[in-house]
Amino acid sequence: MTLNSVVVSAMSGRRLVSPRHNPWPLIALILLLLIAAAVIATGIGAVEIKPGRIVFHGLARLGLSYPDLSDFEAAVFFSIRLPRTLVAVVVGATLAVAGVLMQTFFRNPLAEPSIVGVASGGALGAVAWIVVGASAGIWTGIPAQFALPVAAFIGSAIVCGAILLISGDEDGIDSTKMLLSGIAINAIAGAGIGLMTFIADDAQLRDMTFWIMGSLSAASWQQLWVLAPVFACTMAFAYWFALPLNALLLGDGAAHHLGINVRVTKLAVICLTCLSSATVVAMCGVIGFVGLIAPHAARLLVGPDHRALLPLSLLLGALLMIGADTVARVIVSPSELPIGILTALAGGPVFLWLLRRRTTHARNDRGSNDA
Amino acid sequence: MTFRLFAGACLMLLAAAFPIHVSTSAEAEQRYIVIGNTVAEIVSELIPASQVVGVGSGLDHIEAFRGIPVVRGFRLTSAENLLALRPTAVLITERQTRPELVVQLRGAGVRVEIFPDEQGKAAVVEKIEHLGRLLDRQAAATALAERFSADWDAAIASVGEPAVRPRGLFILSGGGRPTLVGGRDTHPAHLIELAGGTNVVEMIEGYKPLSQEAMVALAPQFIIINNEGMTPVNGSIAALSAPGAMMTPAARNGRVIALSSGALTGPGIMTPKAIRELAARIRDVAVAP
Amino acid sequence: MLEAENITVVKGGRHILSDVSVRASAGELVALVGPNGAGKSTLLSVLAGNGHRRGHVHWFDRRLSGWSRRALAQRMAVMEQHESTPFQFLVREFVNLGRMPHRRCTTPQVDRRIVRQAMDAMDITCLADRSVTTLSGGERQRAHMARCLAQIWAHPDALPGNGCALLLDEPTSALDLKQQSRLLTAAWAFARRGGCCIAVLHDLNLASTFADKVVFLVDGRVVEEGPPQSTITGPNVRKWYQTELVTARRESDDGRVLIALPTPSHP
């Protein structure tokens, strides 16, 4: 199963036989790859820690003693590197799962979590906090480092409530309405952010700009204590709904006739997506394209069955984030690039390629229909 | 209906033919709009506040200008806002301008003077003298320039040639988002150098994010923040609680220096005072890091 | 097996269905025919348990509301119009989706056998590893039909029949003559084995050939109900379709063949 054969069969529209029959060996392989990447990533950074010593640090924590390890190295490794790598894994996985859910909900392989406007709502919340909130004197009770994430989360929550209100009707959630309301909300949030840009001063402007572009630089164990449970919750529920999600791919009507509670399933999908998306945006800013690319790549390998798609997507998402974050940390050291730039730089062209492929496929399908 | 159209068209033609013109006779009362910290500080020393009809934002620390209408908006999106105050001249720093804005203002007959943002004592002296000529207060300007020059030299002398230059860092914001620090072309960086320290992020230009790990690797001995950031809601305090910042010698020893925003923008006539203040704090660090 | 009484559906102030009653028993293939806008698809939707309506629907001697979604789905499969998915399921996986209502009481081996047999029944075994997005219209219809069969397939060794229902909404729209006949033959065989099949058909010829009972819907009302010979007649067709009906004799089995000729309006 070489990369070349993957690409060739992807182009021809026929699936590779083996991962579709049994996806678990592939998933295990990607998991090993992820673990290796994570270990390598923890060895890379501004402070020099030789790769082998990471293992020693890990063992030292477990109780074995190695006298020549410096406390300083250990501190850097455990307070900065390790949580950052873990946050990258969790964020990548969360975004990927949210991406799968969105693509299923809208029955469109080109959908992304930001499509419903949750990310821009969060961005508006954070930006409003940076520009206006800080001087407004509210939030005196909340510790400074939590204030911004909380503000962003509130922004996302408001958007979530709004879209559910707008697109919910007696028959459940209307996907078209949700898509259109997402467009409107993205526009409104964009206008709000523009307004903030206008009234911001120099320092706030810089602050805002770098936050919006997305970054894992504030990664810490505290962030992980929030991100990890949210991810676990999202993944658990998504997997539980795996078969209903498969049915949803056929259409609301067909899913209903297969005995699925379409209303509950769709509501669950939206709530999970909003929750996970909002949490990631609150912690790390707006990171795009991971939720588009990871599920898509996974679908190319194992097909649209969610029982295999969800695990593989999350692994690929995590892998993508680790790669992007390592590059972001290293390429302009000691400064760092906002990770949103990298995911967009990588993801944008891939998205266009996917779009192009879809059009050619549609043309081929139509051609065979006439035959 | 057609009469109205005709009348409207005539009016429009008239308006186009006669652009708004503001008289700039030297004897008529001068009305200035001042935008930019460094320029405003000098102007407040040279002319009475009554001649200033509008100021930019962020000038709260200049007492003389309290109560004067503030023109908001970064980069000042509309010339009309400025023109509404009927200025005779606009004094503005380079960073705050846009070429189109300048063209519009000049087209309306308003004089626009742009002051470059340069570092160093000579730049400030040049600015004072330029303003003196513009505002027709050469004598006062020369006196101010001399006072400033002496002040600056005294401040530099008091710093001397320290044997040890402690390593420092200016944090603009952070906490839940990338920590922005002051690189080599920023005023805080210059301030650190002038006050006898070393800027650890010399390799970065402008205000850029610094990774937590790099901050640990660079190990600054003192950290400067804006003292408006001392309130819990601002990002600077939050930046100090990030994992990397907490591991720096500066945080461990409590060497966090808060300066006013007036001191942190510059260089201007407040800068010598800032140099002295910072130098005193840095000397403490050199003695007992 | 099916008893629907006094079904009324109002949408946007318009009566889509007014007081419609339909009955179908085991072993019957019921065709719903009628001009466009008569409400045939809506009626099928209502019978399938979708949509809001006034009136009663009883399936297998139980009210519709008394059936759990999954239990009903184990015995009744619905094939809707215009179903397509942009996702690249293999045909094999696609047909397997039909097994979903049985997920708690079946094993993967049983599912595999049933899927294979369903694909055999619809003659798409050769397409098993193709992606559904690459199928032609006719092949896709057959895949849908196979999925529906798999859904109501109770035991791997017995074709679905007694105790099950199949609801088809214009199942032959994309098919050529040969495929149309094959699909409806499969539906007819299903009915012969004791199943109940209700199909919305546009083609009067097909309705007359395959159906045991024809329900003629016009403007939301049942205007005729009975065997094809008595419902699809010249006067009815002229009245409701403004079209002439020509009857011919089929050579192979002496059956009736209908050809409807639309009358062009003269200037």
- On the 0 to 100 scale, the average pLDDT of chain A is 83
Summed up, the helix count of chain B is 13
- By CATH's scheme, which homologous superfamily of chain A applies? ABC transporter involved in vitamin B12 uptake, BtuC
| Biggest β-sheet description of chain A | 2 strands, antiparallel
By DSSP (H or I, 4+ residues per run), the number of helices of chain A equals 16
Helical residues, percent of chain A = over 70%
Report the CATH topology name of the largest domain in chain B.
Rossmann fold
- How do the SSEs of chain A run, as a string of H and E? HHHHHHHEEHHHHHHHHH
Main β sheet profile of chain B: 6 strands, mixed
Number of structural units classed as domains of chain A: 1
User: Order of strands in the sheet with the most strands of chain A?
Assistant: 1-2
Task: Compile the SSE list and pairings.
The complex is a heterotrimer of chains A (371), B (289) and C (267).
Chain A: H1 3-12, H2 17-21, H3 24-42, H4 51-61, H5 71-105, H6 118-136, H7 144-167, E1 168-169, E2 172-173, H8 175-199, H9 202-212, H10 221-240, H11 242-248, H12 252-257, H13 262-284, H14 290-302, H15 306-330, H16 339-370
Antiparallel strand pairs in A: 1-2
Chain B: H1 2-17, E1 32-35, H2 37-46, E2 52-56, E3 70-71, H3 79-83, E4 89-93, H4 99-107, E5 111-115, H5 121-134, H6 138-159, E6 167-173, E7 179-182, H7 187-194, E8 198-199, E9 207-210, H8 212-218, E10 222-226, H9 235-240, H10 243-246, H11 249-252, E11 256-259, H12 261-264, H13 271-287
Parallel strand pairs in B: 1-2, 1-4, 2-3, 4-5, 6-8, 6-10, 10-11
Antiparallel strand pairs in B: 6-7, 7-9
Helix pairs in contact in B: 2-5, 5-6, 6-13
Chain C: E1 2-11, E2 14-24, E3 29-33, H1 40-48, E4 54-59, E5 62-63, H2 69-75, E6 76-79, H3 91-96, H4 108-121, H5 137-152, E7 165-169, H6 177-192, E8 196-200, H7 204-210, E9 213-218, E10 221-226, H8 228-231, H9 234-241, E11 243-249, E12 256-262
